[in-house]
Amino acid sequence: MKVAIVHDALNQYGGAERVLEQIKAIYPHAPVFAPIYDPTIMPAHYHGWDVRASWLDRVPLARTRHRLMLPFYPTAMESFDFDDYDLVVGSAFAFAHGVLTGPQTLHVNYCHSPARALWDYHRYAERERLGRLPRTVLAPMLTWLRQWDRLAAERPDAWVATSRLVRDRIQKFYRKTSEIIPPPVEVDRFDRGDGSGGYFLMLMRLHRWKRPDIVVQACTRIGAQLVVAGDGRELAALRAMAGPSVRFVGRVNDAEMRPLYAGCKAFILPAEEDFGVTPLEAMASGRPVIAYGRGGVLDTVVPGVTGAFFAEQTAEALAEVLTSFDMSAYDPVAIRTHVGQFDNAVFRTRLKAFIDAEFARAQASRA
After folding, report:
1. Claim to verify: residue 243 and residue 292 sit in the same structural domain
2. Are residue 29 and residue 88 in the same domain, yes or no?
3. Which residues is 33 bridged to in the sheet?
4. Rounded to a whole number, what is the largest CA-CA distance in the chain?
5. For 323-361, b where at least 16 C-beta lie within 10 A, e where not — what string?
6. Per DSSP, what are the bridge partners of residue 179?
7. Which tens digit of pLDDT belongs to each residue from 136-188?
8. Are residues 194 and 149 in the same domain?
């Protein structure tokens, strides 16, 4: 079986790219197609892959000003030729589902989320702090892009969603059903900790829409020890509002991150994420998660067993949960056991089984 993998863009590294790596592990010989590929940004092991970029990659500034390229992504996706492939697996957070495949090719799309730039534009523009030029370029294009996106949603033969939230978005915007297969975490990469550091931990990109401010405010107000790991546009503002119980350690690598997870009393996630991999990493370290009770954490955190939720995205609501938090009520062994269902190997097994079943169904329908 000849397989190809499609990803939206290879010019940043995050949770979607970790999922891509697991898809690549299932199909190690499959080429990876992406409209843009910047090898200087991606990890070194990507350099050994067969990555095939589109014509868009050769456009000046496309790699660095990729938001301005948004109107051109549909054409770039449609420029790829998959006539010789039996299976195309998409990894999509924007337009990867829009590739063109023939009737002989099964197209399975793993959807991280329908494109926020199209379906939640105003909040997207605010959270990304789009300047006047990107807003001026994008606004007139949105109606056409939504129309293309809705029609392109008819192209995959099967959809996979990361969470119930994303499944509901796929149903809302595309009127498509989807199988939920959560993104994975490499459980064995993390050491089970006991929270002996005595601090709460927040590890994230420090962007305004993620609401790191409420964590800093809550811990400052009640005098709770907080370690803030990460960098971003809000760092200066967070430092200005932080009290003496808050410590900033900046961006951390994998080696620095693991002991931070292991030593924390609990990990705090104040954002509404489509899924959220950092809570899985914390639970892989045996540590409970205190999260805003919306989004992907509803699929991963079990209240009273692996963590707790706060109902309102405010410093007051979070401070109330932190004040009553009892670390001894959580069993690190039980937490780590729970997160085993999200391990890389489980993800690969589930996704491959789903794709194999879809492929067999497609083969039978053509017989």
Report:
1. yes
2. yes
3. 6, 52
4. 70
5. eebeeeebebeebbebbeebbbebbeebbeebbeebbee
6. 160
7. 666 677 888 999 999 999 999 999 999 999 999 999 999 999 999 999 999 99
8. no
Band of residue 20 on the pLDDT scale cut at 50, 70, 90:
very high
Nearest-CA neighbor of 181 among 105, 106, 275, 253? Answer: 275
User: The domain spanning residue 282 has which CATH number?
Assistant: 3.40.50.2000
- Give the chain's domain count: 2
- Please check whether residues 88 and 103 belong to one and the same domain: yes
Question: Helix (H) and strand (E) counts for the chain?
Answer: 14, 13
SS3 letters across 109-171: EEECCCCHHHHCHHHHHHHCCCCHHHHHHHHHHHHHHHHHHHHHCCCCCEEEECCHHHHHHHH
Query: Please, which residues have CB within 8 angstroms of residue 169's CB and are 6 or more apart in sequence?
Result: 113, 114, 119
Phi, psi of 10 (to 5 degrees): -115, 65
Position of tokens 């939230």?
Answer: 165
Q: For residue 25, give both structure tokens.
A: 């592990």
| Same structural domain, 177 and 236 | no
**337 and 200 together in one domain:** yes
Q: How many CA atoms lie within 13 A of 277 on its CB side?
A: 15
Average pLDDT, integer, range 322-351: 96
Examine the pLDDT at 128 and tell me if it is beyond 60: no
For 45-70, what is the mean pLDDT?
A: 84
Tell me what the pLDDT averaged over the chain comes to.
Answer: 92
Q: 283 lies in which domain range? A: 187-342
